[in-house]
């Protein structure tokens, strides 16, 4: 096939097919062909999308149901600027926005920030069926949403029944690439005073099947037909109970529990067998919220929330070095090592937001946030060494190491709207941060602490020059404070030691953006140009001798977290769709380029970002019950200058690709639906940056029955 061989043909195919809907990868029907009417994540107050000063994409519950997805991250894959990151663990996918690390993307569920404190960022550990709405803000958003929002925000709202609504449902899914299965069900309803929801889900995924051959982007010369191990299991429970005090006020309790086991696939190494497993990852969240809304009083909207979160992570790392000859001797060296890391993260938080119209009809939003994270870690290790004639064995159990650290954050912000005239609107915002991190106990080093204060701001201008279109421009700052792991860790992994650094500076970025939105009965479009400048990015650098702040010299391969990077990113995002009577061609395209500057003096455009990514296709509303979606998903080649696990320079490459997919959504009766997706029909072999190799030809199916 020509499309698989020529990158220019890939790009031409993507552009030639047409445009993509602005709100998601699939719209329900022709009468819903429109931009989302109202959004809240851009400014903190509810507003029409044409007036929103940020690049924002909305995915609704009905749109999620039309596509069978094995996990939540797949719901967001085709939004411009979104990249999926799995770090070799297919069951723990994360989101990257505009090329920023997943740790620089803030994940919020019902307003609660989801902390992680690892070096990777928060995985999307939620069942997609519990979600009512997702708002994705691309670009720095630390004024409205808080720390970690350098790349943007994924703001998730769970389902809530309206008064008089009653529903019970059961669903099942099958995903052939992993021989995966999912069962879920729930009930929700509401009266004039009370509303409730209870949902459960269980899923089991096997190893990923790929087209047989050498794994793309890897030096492993072995030929595979599946990536073993890459399996995972998931269980979740989500519930909510609300009480309407009157027409203006509501109190609600929300609770979510998620448990997962997952394995990481690692390429084979000569004379070495490596394993990485996550036998336990739990998260338990509870929140009590209060909301008030009355347009006739001074503070017309008030929201408050207290929350408590507990998370547990267990990671097992094994390295078996097979018989290796010792030069100029008859001896061989073998070793078996096992390391277990057990982390407990506890978070308590308080949020308060109030909206008023102190200056005429202009919205003023005040916000206060307090959060305290406690991280308790324990590491254990065992190593058996054989050196010399057979039977000569030295066993060593390393003493357990433990650390206990805390991070306390409080911040306050204000966001002000200014109506300059009927068509021109401005927004100004500022947030002040105060953060205190403490290492209170450690077997590796003396206790220490670090504080930081920061003020970030944003400004935007929106011109809605007619009822169908608007132009926006903005400048916004992002802020990400170092995690507890990056500041205080002493963690073995992949044959190396990784040390924290309490002297790290916070990561900062500024995003400049210009955008245009348009919508009428046939056309919908959202076009964005952006440029981001970032500094003090945190990365691992190989060290020799004693790490900063520690007393014991490193004897093997060692890394320490340092402020080493500066970055500049320039890009364009396009979402375009045209509605015919029964057909809707669409295009979703992102183009970006990133320049990195390392502390070593290296300056490179080879940052690992693909030159372009996109999805193009056409939806056909065959009947009132049947919708079909034919589309091509593709991406350009990428190169990354990086370092391997030993700290040696290496260049990672991915090639351009295009895959053909067909989706169908069938609803024969109002309470029964079937979603089917045939993926990678040409069985192409490719790999996206920061992901495992893509699955081969696969069929996903989900059925849902409500009553």
From TrEMBL:
Cleaved signal peptide residues: 1-28
Principal localisation: membrane
Name of the featured protein: TonB-dependent receptor
Region (Disordered): 209-233
Domain TonB-dependent receptor plug residue range list: 51-153
Family: Belongs to the TonB-dependent receptor family.
Keyword line: Cell outer membrane, Membrane, Receptor, Signal, TonB box, Transmembrane, Transmembrane beta strand, Transport
InterPro entries from the UniProt entry: Beta-barrel_TonB, Beta-barrel_TonB_sf, Plug_dom, Plug_dom_sf, TonB-dep_rcpt-like
Topology in the lipid bilayer: Multi-pass membrane protein
Domain of life the protein comes from: Bacteria
Cell compartment(s), UniProt: Cell outer membrane
Residue span, TonB-dependent receptor-like beta-barrel domain: 245-681
């Amino acid at each position: 096939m020509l499309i698989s061989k020529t990158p220019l043909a890939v790009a031409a195919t993507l552009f030639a097919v047409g445009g993509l809907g602005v709100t998601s990868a699939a719209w329900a029907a022709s009468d819903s062909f429109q931009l989302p009417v109202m959004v809240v994540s851009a400014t903190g107050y509810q507003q029409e999308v044409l007036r929103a000063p940020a690049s924002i994409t909305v995915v609704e519950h009905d749109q999620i149901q039309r596509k069978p997805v094995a996990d939540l991250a797949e719901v967001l894959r085709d939004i411009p600027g979104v990249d999926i990151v799995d770090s070799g663990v297919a069951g723990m996918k994360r989101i990257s926005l505009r090329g920023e690390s997943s740790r620089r993307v803030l994940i919020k569920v019902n307003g609660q920030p989801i902390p992680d404190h690892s070096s990777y960022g928060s995985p999307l550990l939620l069942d997609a069926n519990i979600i009512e709405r997702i708002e994705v803000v691309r670009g720095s958003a630390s004024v409205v949403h808080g720390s970690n929002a350098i790349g943007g925000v994924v703001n998730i709202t769970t389902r809530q029944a309206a008064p008089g609504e009653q529903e019970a449902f059961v669903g099942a899914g099958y995903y052939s690439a992993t021989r995966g299965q999912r069962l879920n069900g729930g009930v929700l309803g509401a009266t004039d005073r009370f509303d409730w929801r209870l949902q459960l889900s269980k899923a089991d995924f096997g190893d990923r099947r790929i087209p047989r051959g050498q794994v793309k982007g890897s030096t492993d010369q072995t030929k595979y037909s599946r990536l073993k191990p890459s399996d995972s299991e998931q269980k979740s429970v989500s519930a909510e109970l609300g009480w309407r005090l009157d027409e203006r006020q509501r109190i609600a309790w929300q609770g979510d529990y998620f448990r997962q086991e997952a394995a990481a696939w690692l390429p084979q190494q000569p004379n070495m067998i490596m394993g990485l497993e996550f036998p336990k990852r739990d998260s338990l969240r509870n929140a009590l919220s209060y909301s008030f809304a009355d347009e006739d009083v001074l503070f017309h909207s008030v929201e408050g929330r207290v929350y408590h979160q507990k998370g547990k992570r267990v990671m097992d790392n094994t390295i078996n070095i097979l018989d290796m000859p010792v030069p100029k001797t008859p001896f061989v060296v073998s070793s078996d090592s096992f390391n277990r890391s057990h982390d407990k993260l506890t978070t308590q938080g308080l949020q308060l937001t109030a909206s008023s119209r102190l200056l005429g009809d202009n919205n003023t939003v005040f916000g206060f946030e307090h959060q305290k994270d406690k991280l308790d870690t324990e590491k254990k290790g065992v190593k058996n060494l054989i050196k010399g004639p057979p039977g000569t064995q030295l066993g060593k159990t390393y003493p357990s190491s433990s650390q206990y650290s805390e991070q306390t954050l409080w911040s306050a912000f204000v966001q002000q709207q200014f109506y300059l005239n009927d068509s021109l609107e401005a927004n100004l915002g500022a947030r002040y941060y105060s953060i205190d991190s403490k290492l209170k106990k450690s077997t590796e080093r003396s206790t220490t602490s670090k504080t930081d204060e920061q003020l970030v701001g944003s400004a935007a201008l929106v011109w809605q020059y007619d009822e169908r279109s608007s132009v926006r421009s903005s400048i916004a700052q992002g802020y990400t404070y170092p995690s507890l792991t990056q500041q205080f860790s002493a963690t073995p992994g992949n044959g190396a030691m990784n040390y924290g650094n309490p002297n790290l500076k916070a990561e900062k970025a500024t995003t400049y953006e210009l955008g245009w939105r348009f919508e009428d009965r046939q056309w919908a479009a959202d076009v964005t140009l952006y440029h981001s400048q970032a500094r003090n990015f945190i990365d691992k650098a190989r060290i020799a001798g004693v790490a900063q702040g520690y007393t014991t010299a490193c004897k093997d391969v060692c890394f320490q977290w340092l402020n080493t990077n500066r970055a500049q990113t320039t890009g364009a995002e396009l979402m375009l769709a045209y509605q015919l009577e029964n057909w809707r061609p669409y295009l979703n395209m992102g183009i970006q380029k990133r320049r990195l500057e390392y502390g070593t003096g290296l300056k490179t455009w080879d940052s690992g970002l693909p030159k372009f990514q996109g999805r193009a296709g056409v939806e056909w509303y065959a009947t009132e019950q049947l919708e079909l979606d034919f589309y091509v998903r593709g991406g350009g080649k990428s190169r990354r200058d990086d370092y391997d696990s030993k700290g040696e320079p290496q260049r990672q490459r991915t090639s351009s690709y295009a895959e053909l997919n067909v989706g169908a959504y069938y609803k024969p009766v109002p309470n029964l639906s079937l979603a089917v997706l045939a993926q990678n029909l040409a069985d192409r072999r490719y790999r996206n940056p920061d992901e495992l190799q893509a699955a081969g030809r696969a069929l996903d199916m989900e059925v849902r029955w409500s009553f």
